[in-house]
Amino acid sequence: QVLLVFAEEDEQSNGFRWACDKAGFRCNIARTPQSALECFLDKHHDIIIIDHRHSRYFDAEALCRSIRTTKASENTVIICVVQRHTDREESSILPLISAGFTRRYVENSSRMACYNELIQLEFGQVQAQFKLRACNSLFTALEKSQEAIEITSEDHVIQYVNPAFETMMGYQIGELIEKELTEVPINEKKADFLDTINSCIKIGKEWQGMYYAKKKNGDSIQQNVKILPVIGQGGKIRHYVSISRLCNDNNKVEKTCECIQAESQTDTQTCRHKDMRKGSLDVRSTTSRGSDGISQRRRSSMARVHSMTIEAPITKVINIINAAQESSPMPVAEALDRALEILRTTELYSPQLGTKDEDPHTSDLVGGLMTDGLRRLSGNEYILSAKQTHQVAGSLSSPISLNDIPPRITQAMENEEQWDFDIFELEAATHKRPLVYLGLKIFARFGICEFLNCSESTLRSWLQVIEANYHSSNSYHNSTHSADVLHATAYFLSKERVKQTLDPIDEVAALIAATVHDVDHPGRTNSFLCNAGSELAILYNDTAVLESHHAALAFQLTTRDGKCNIFKNMERNEYRTLRQVIIDMVLATEMTKHFEHVNKFVNSINKPLAALEENGNNGDGESIKTVLRSPENRILIKRMLIKCADISNPCRPREQCIEWAGRISEEYFAQTDEERRQGLPVVMPVFDRNTCSIPKSQLSFIDYFIIDMFDAWDAFADLPNLMEHLNNNIKYWKGLDGRNLRVLRPPP
């Protein structure tokens, strides 16, 4: 099947359409990126041909990236039609490859040229993709095989093991991949036996026999093993495939090494040497490493198995389940198998996208907020913060006292204890300096100066310094956002269930963390900084880049000058405790751990509290206190509190929700613009200011990140007003989307 994406009908599109008819290919035509994406998700074409000649109609590279974000495009060949230029130097194809194109086609409307291109694609890239699809079937067979299968490189580096191997040996696949086969303790006589196996497989012969293997827990098991060399590139052995099953009489471990050795030396009995079949599967999805010299140095044998002894808690759980399976009836054993499959994944708390994977808004939000970007070696560098001069206390004008706040600002803060408090009114009254004023009032209400043993003037200077290091040029991540998160945090801290749970030091940490949680934010996502090779991304190893920077800079700004050091009078141990809580809360705002935090909160707090209520223990203060006051659960509650405060915009009154939606959209639009200017990967292609549907993006964000989290937080803290606002805002965005409007507000 072929999809042609041409904004207008011309000779080139007609040429490809004629070629499809001649070749007998089914053909669809799309005129816009949106219709192209919808058609592809419906038909799953093998070839997509996109017109890149006229940028005024649509961005072909952005469309290609959007298609590549879908799972359906994994085996799709995407062709880029470019203009023919005879008067200038040939341009590089790398930007097209980076965008996700398979190859380019220099415009040639000749029908036969179009036909030849399609035929070459059919017998080249398309046929190769069919083979890759077939590999999925082969690996499915391996995964379901009851025999333990292990594939290694020519240098005996483990590249694949199937679930049966994990069950037999007690390891997880992550513990084995890229590891060399390690020796188990053997005696001198057994070494001769291992040399016999090596001499067999190294000349391309199959070996079959029995030997003892050592499981991870130290138990010795007797296996019937077949080892097959796989001939690959250059006619050399590139892989070894080992197929094992437990011997029927596995209890007779007293069987001597000499007996096994004697059996292995007779070709016509246990050790059957077979000619290597030339047509053996070349496992190209696992690449070989090393040279002949390295191979000789390693001397690792296929017959020498694993003796690793480090055992993580999750491994102990898996081993317990494995042991339980042995004496369980078949339905129970199969259920435990499914549980093991889930436990073996590295993303235990991240849900599968499922059908949402086909929604480009959700895919882009997940890709932009929950990944650290596409690793890219490039000359592009985005310099941020490492060499910037940050505002310090001495360079700022002295802030006024809480008692001297102008009447308009005082009036704007009158209802700051209520959820419907309007932060934008305060922003206007303070000329975009709301954090100092709101911070002074909230910190006074919670007695922060008394707890820290610092003066009000020190607190004022600190708030001034922190606010000065927020970027007022950012449409969203500025000091108004910080003040908004501070207000939400204070509101949550006033809820009865939260007050039951947290200590004064937790409240102080939460308010400080909210204040500093985005300080010096550049208005770009972590993915952007990683792709751009920024100094911060390099400093923090592409991991929680911004959140690490916010926490580190907050303490640098605070402690470098005594005039704003709110911690200077604290006792050392109390300061260290406070510092750790602040850092943990700021790092919790990083979105890659979103589902981990939410799921832990639900399972450790929501469900136990619900169980107590169902069992009639609602009035049992001690049982509830045990759940709420454990150190581990208090950490989860503090993380959940700041996470909800950080992204509470959809739960604000409608006008505030709309304003925040416009601001974050503008910031993402600006990032997309800059990514295109710099030639960087566009991590959120749907945030194109010319085509983006803001209602769709808001609905995707709410559906994927907000609803479950606030359902859990509401169940804990009792927030009916927030949930009412959330439901009203969902109806509002759905109303706009139902009218196919892409803007913030309906037309007059």
Shape: globular
In total, the number of strands is 10
Total domain count: 3
Number of helices: 31
Biggest sheet details: 5 strands, parallel
CATH architecture of the largest domain: Orthogonal Bundle
Q: Enumerate the strands of the largest sheet in spatial order, edge to edge or round the barrel.
A: 2-1-3-4-5
Q: Radius of gyration, Cα only, in angstroms?
A: 31 Å
Q: Structural class of the secondary elements?
A: alpha/beta
CATH topology of the largest domain: Catalytic domain of cyclic nucleotide phosphodiesterase 4b2b
**CATH structural class of the largest domain:** Mainly Alpha
Low-pLDDT parts are 183-190, 249-310, 374-387
The overall pLDDT average reads: 82
* Percent of sequence in beta strands: 5-15%
CATH superfamily of the largest domain: 3'5'-cyclic nucleotide phosphodiesterase, catalytic domain
What's the end-to-end separation, in Å? 45 Å
Helical residues, percent: 40-55%
